[in-house]
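Severity: low
Component: inverse-folding endpoint
Summary: output formatting inconsistent between runs
Steps to reproduce: submit the following structure tokens with default settings.
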């Protein structure tokens, strides 16, 4: 599927180009947390992880997850799934709690 079409699944009401989205993702969630939350809610997991490498995901997820509303079922389910993925990638355990301290460790130390 085309990258532009994939982005439309999350940002259907605007004209966010792949180039602009990728630039925002490269910089990080500061000031753009809404774009990150929408990306993690609506974009295919495999595609999103491929677009940002594992180290980037590990480092930004503790901050991005603060933008999710645990009282909304879709967001709560997505949050749980991404937390499990973060735990597996960061520590090899899907039950490992998300921690910004662990995210700062070098890959080999984790």
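Observed output (run 2 of 3):
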């Amino acid at each position: 599927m085309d990258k532009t079409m994939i982005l439309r699944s999350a940002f259907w009401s605007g004209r966010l180009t792949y180039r602009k989205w990728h630039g925002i993702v490269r910089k990080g969630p500061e000031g753009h947390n809404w774009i990150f939350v929408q990306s993690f809610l609506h974009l295919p997991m495999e595609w999103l992880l491929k677009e940002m490498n594992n180290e980037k995901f590990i480092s930004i997820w503790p901050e991005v997850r603060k933008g999710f509303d645990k009282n909304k079922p879709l967001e709560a389910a997505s949050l749980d799934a991404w937390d499990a993925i973060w735990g597996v990638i960061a520590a090899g355990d899907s039950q490992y709690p998300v921690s910004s301290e662990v995210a700062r460790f070098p890959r080999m130390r984790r």
